[in-house]
User: Fold this.
Amino acid sequence: MERPIFLALLIVALPLGAFAIEILHALIFRRMAKWNDKLSMAAMFTALGCALYLLFTEVLAHPHGIEKAYMGSVPWISFGGDMNPVRIDLSILVDNMTCVMLVVVTLVSSLVHLYSSSYMHGEERYSRFFSYLSLFTFSMLGLCIANNILILFIFWELVGLCSYFLIGFYIEKKSAGDASKKAFITNRVGDALFMTAIMIVFSVLSQSKGYAGKDVLSFPEIYRSIGELGSNAGPWVGNHDLLVIAGIFFFMGCVTKSAQFPLHIWLPDAMEGPTPVSALIHAATMVAAGVYMIVRMFPLLVGEGYISGDWFHSTPLEVIAIVGGFTSIFAGTIALVQNDLKKGLAYSTCSQLGYMAMAVGVGSTTGGMFHLFTHAFFKACLFLGAGSVIHAVHSQMMGDMGGLRKKMPITYWTFLISTLAIAGTPLFSGFMSKEMVLTSALAYGHMHEGSLFHSLPFYFAAITAVLTTFYMFRLVFLTFFGKGAWEDKKHGAHDDHAHAPVAVYAAPVSSPGHGAAAHGAHGHAPAAHSTAAAHDTHAAHDPHGGTPAAHDPHAAPVAAHGDHGHHGEPHESPWQMALPLVVLAVLALFSSGIAFPGLPGSHWFEHRLNDGVLVKDLMTESSAATEQTRQLFEPMVVHQPGEPLAANASEIVAEYHEAWSHAHHTVFLFSLCAVAFGITAAAWFFIRKRGVDYVTGVAPLRGLRTVLSNLWYVDAFFIKGFVPLEMKFNNLCAWFDRTVVDGIVNLVAWIANKIGVLAGLVDFYGVDGAVRGTGDAVLEGGSLVRKLVSGKVQDYVKWTVVGFVVAVAAVAWFGH
Amino acid sequence: MLLTLSIFIPVIGAALLLLLPSSQKSLLRGVALATTIAAFVPICMLALGYGKGEGEKAEVKLAAVASARVATITDVALRSEVQQLLVDPFKNQPMNLTAAVKDRLVKGNAYKAWHEAWELGVARSTVIAKEIRYVEYGNWITAFNVNYFLGVDGISLPLLVLAGLLSILCIWYSFNIEEGVKAYMILFLLLEAGLLGVFCALDFFLFYVFWEVVLLPMYFLIGFWGGPRRLYAAIKFFIYTLAGSVIMLVALLALYFKDGYDTFNVLTLMGMAPTFASNFQTWIFIALFAGFAIKVPIVPFHTWLPDAHVEAPTAISMMLAGILLKMGGYGFFRFSYPLAPDAARSETFVKFIAILGLINLVYGALCAMAQTDFKKLVAYSSVSHMGYVLLGMAAMTSAGFQGAAMQMLNHGVSSAMMFLIVGIVYERAHHRDLNRFGGMGLQMPYYTGFAVIGFFASLGLPGLNGFISEFFVFQGAFQSEGFWAGSSVVYGMPRWIVYAALPGIVLTAAYILWTIQRVFLGKVTDHHYLEFKDLSKRETLILLPFAFLCVYLGVQPGVLLNYMDGSLKALQTFVTTKG
Amino acid sequence: MGHIGLSHYLVVAAIMFALGVAVVLTRRNAIAVLCGLELMLNAAALNFVAFNRFGSPNRLDGQIFTVFIMTLAAAEAATILAIVLNVYHTLNTVRVDEVDSMKE
Assistant:
């Protein structure tokens, strides 16, 4: 086994091992171990070390990273013989993208583990949290190293499962349960379509000669089939429509996982989970899985483009570009009016995911991956910072914040750095990735001169860039600047009562007798109930409330924090929380190298992640690959101004390179302006006073506010429209089953019963009647005959004589 | 020998129980449990041996028996004539014999011997027969050519293992029955004997006997130890199933009397099946369908299931869902498809079965969503999951068959586990109203852990067993249209059916998650629940094998798939080739 | 008067028999029934004698038979009278239509 393969397996196995040990302990001893957190953290940091080692030795050591990807496989499922073979192997892929993803996931996960050891401290189910984290990390890592789309799908769903557990971590809360259920079911919709795409690929490939008996769902085989398409051979010839459908369905999987419109609805509700979960799963990793998957499936998405010779005209990619672009602007507008810090960040994530998807849609997989990479770090930093703030002020609403700049310096500075990164400020990492995304979008627009449809992605992205800066800085200013709300609050609001454990048992209204007296241990029940209620009413009264506040109950008075002697004054977080913030902020600064074009080190990512390195390698193995096919991937290579083109580059490639150069400059200037404008506008609106949302002040926008606050009614459509309708349908079906179908059975039984009764009657009166009638007749006859026997001798003699005479007469008449 | 042992050990156990006094409950329970374990031992040996390739092959054994029969013909000339005839059993069928030959045979007392040898000659020639091992053969009712013919292959053996295992676990769980323990245990053991017999009988008459044997103990078990509407449920179950079986009997007899075959030997009939007229095959398929469809259950013949499941005691529900429903699916695999191959692969019936599977899937899920009784919900989810089996079968592809066969086993495990979960909470709460439950996760976390495994396995989460079968069923069904596109013989299942079945996946997730939320999440909704104890040792040990299987079969399904591969390949080859 | 042949005797005997049957069937007194019975018997005896005289004159079969009949008649009359006496003792009547205890 080659070392990278071994390392990759080890990295994946470490969190799995931690999880397995923790679960076994729970199985045998019926409770979670106390050392879960330490075990999980140890496993994660070790994995991080391995991942960094892998990155440095394989990727960074060479100018183009891993030239030839490492692959390994083990047979898993195989049946069907020669007639109808089905074969799926457990196969691993380690290439540049894998190494990068491994580092991202392990790094963010380790930091979140560390952060959680302080943030979740005192929680009742603290240990369980870490086992869930381990399971999640294992699943995400497995997803990253999978070389087979079905194996990826398996880990994809496992990641969804962990998300379900973690969002619904606070199982006492109904809202958490609802949110986790919503997340899983929404994801299931996408997964069903994702699975269909897998089935399409499998069906088409396994029927083709040359693929029989092979593991057709592995990436090399899929790429090979697309490569063959370039020379008009292979299984996809004549299955053009299936290819398009498969591409779109793969994207549908991404739509739900990466929260694109219209299946993004689960992401804001996912903020019900603890903040570290939001940071890990819903910012840095799980939601990135969708983008990762479509990048891996990129050749298939391009597929149609090979037929036409122009890869820009692939239907799936066009869909992706538009949907991604629309999502970014859609989510961006909603983020403008969020008053809940976490929700605001959630919509920001949604918007950035739109960016990533759009980047892939316009052909720049490097752009998408790069933005994923930088986004992971600064978004995680933002969320963890938000957690730090929430931890300090015990509330998620920005109305309760303000002026925290002085009180929480580390949090403030890291948050600011990350915000600058997300805004795309030069020198910060987000700048390079955003620039790449915007450039590719603009180049894409230029390639299709005059086509509004193809220019839309860029317009969406551009507007979003401005919006992003604006709303992100709004968050910063409302949270850290101005006068703090905590300065006004009395200490009494959060008294010792508040530190009682959240009641396990919701005191029923109908039995007031069961109060503190009856249940000693739950004596705090009414009190905690009322404080929780107080918080709820507080949230409900917020006139600007967008969605009902996703209450991280950590904000509610939950378990006692040992280091929390006083409440009124927010203060900086302990080192376990601060350190991750710092690390992530540093990465937010430097992860893309020095983020200014022309400076050394600024293009390390793109050089190693040259789009299609893997694909090019794999496709050169196929004898059907042609020069043209290889060149078709050229445009995706980042072209630096001044770099010469390959001598035999095709026309499209040349055209694209030119478009890119033009776009490059435009975008650079635009980014600078957007950032500057955004920061100034936000500062002007929001720094003066705290808490008040100046957007409301402007009357004509009030209607817009309402629409935005109601999330463009998408949620309402699903929850108030679709779901109740669907439930009515369910009830109809059940009624139908009970009354109609079963009714028919019961009717049949009733008819059978009545026929039986009828038969009984027929039997009794008819058949038996005949029998009895016969008997009666005989009796009647008998009594008639009985009269002959009168007992009188003379009668006997009379009859004898008569008989004799008759006999003689008969003989005389008929005889002789 | 092993098969007979495993079938009759429960009978012996039941007989033993008859002798014991009914007051000694623990003794009765102990003996019953020991009996089921004792019956499981030969099954395990069978399973291990089959995997290694051991076990007396049908080919070999039947040939031996045939030659023994021929050897009983005393007249040497006649014997050699018979041997000549047997060289090509297909050409020399009973109806093809000339009157003179027949006369000679009858006069020389050799007809019976020839007939049996002919039967066995045809029987061992089929592709399917080549996979059957651990054969046991003996004459039973010679006047009607009924033989005691048992054998297992890759399809029936896992079901046997499941039946044996479920019996052990269900009897163990039945320790909580307090009244009429003796009668309960005896009836249960008879039920087990019948079940084991059903899965290994290769003589149609014998199969029918065992099939009917299963009905009566079930009737009493539901009727006496069940819930409030038990009498209605029991009689409904009994008569509904019996009605189907009677129609099946017609098919049985039709095959017996066809063309002078005079045989109940299923393998022989399979061998002759390709020669049946299409029309005849259609009727056979329909008649057999009537019997099996009610058991599967196929909508709209499913309405006995919710009532039976809800009213039956927990252990009986587990048996019912876990293994009795599989009798229907097994019937399709073993009897319907090979005996009527033309019909099975024709457009009408492929579409018919596929659409019924689709309806089962989606309609079952929709009805499940609307239930407020926990057990009824699980019952409808059973209906929904058996839809996968039908879809897989109609596909006629290897993935389809594997998925369907595996789904039968997976569903047996996960569904039984779900009923157990329901039973555990019912024992404590004495109601099953989903709207009244809440907060079990807080009160009984250990139990919730197991419940989550069971529910997610049922949902088809990758990593657990349900996903593998679900994926392969869909894959096989999807592939069917393309795979059989060029075939003039087999009709590939139309793809739109698969597309239409996809909402079923989402619906399944919806009702399962909603149920989990209603029962396990949230705050504890009734102060009575605060007194619930978490799982007892016995309950844990019963849940463990289920949980283990759910995870193991999800991670390493190859174990099972390879096992069944040979037989399913043989079945696929047999059904899809024009004979 | 012509020659008195067999037919004359037979007719007389037939008339006597018919009268005897009539008496048996219609008279209510048991003794009267007995008288009718005697008449019937004697009619039969007359037949025998007539046939003997005209059919086989050389033989004595008819005559012997007549003696039998007369003996039997006497015995029978004695028996019947004994029965009638008994019946009169138990049932207190000699009317035939009142003795019907053997009816069904």
Remarks:
- Residues 58-131 of chain B form one domain.
- The mean pLDDT of chain B is 90.
- Chains B and C do not touch (no CB pair under 8 Å).
- Strands of chain B lie at 133-141, 146-152.
